[in-house]
Amino acid sequence: MNAWLGRNASPIAIVLLASAVVIGAWEVLDAFATSEPLGTPEGDAPLNPGGLIKVTLFLLVPSLITLAIRRRQRSH
Amino acid sequence: MTTAAPALRPRPKKASIRTRVWLDIALFVGYVLLSAPQSTGIAFHEYFTVVFIPIFISHIVLDWAWVKRVFRKSDNKRSGEVRFNRAFDIVLFVGMVVVIYSGFLVSESILPDFGIDPGATTFWSNVHDASGNLLILLVGIHIAMHMPWIKRNLGRIRPNRSAI
Lengths: 76, 164
What we know:
The complex is a heterodimer of chains A (76) and B (164). Chain A contains 3 helices and no strands. Chain A has 76 residues and is mostly helical. The radius of gyration of chain A is 21 Å and the shape is extended. Chain B has one domain. Chain B is globular, with a radius of gyration of 20 Å. Chain B starts with 16 loop residues before the first helix and ends in an 11-residue tail after the last helix. The mean pLDDT of chain B is 86. Classes of the chains: A mainly alpha (76), B mainly alpha (164).
């Protein structure tokens, strides 16, 4: 594990640095945005399978559209 | 006079295809579970993110050779598909960072469990919801764009198949 981290230290550092830049940019946006403290937490809601159905659909639909476009492009 | 031979820098060992495919499967399954807090619960959603982050970073790091090749400045003769993937993957990376970071800022479970009040605001809650939903669509496109690689290598997860 340590050897793997040592070998890949520079890519990991670049990924973390890029993440910090993205976070910094959003923190700047937050400073200019009007915002209020959040009200009731969502954690108390009962669990339901709707979330998994939504994710499956959200993943499947753009995937199938993209695959169809790629197939069409290749056939031309 | 003799000159010493320059020390060769050890080349990073490339991860096997099998490792990368298993990692991608873990990433996909983890992502689906993470994206459905209504089904898995807020506590799982937040604690599992801590497991998900190193898997996500490893997904990029294990494909670092591809990242370097695609982002090389001097190489402008890339196909349209590669250029699309390059731009798209930047958007995907930004989206993933934003959704994870904003998730911590609206934490209801993990940070309060450690006695930290994230001071959740409507701004970060809206950012988390919007980026989370958009990201699912983008991940769907990302998977479809890399479908040839997935199809080619999915069978290699079995140990008796040789890795390329």
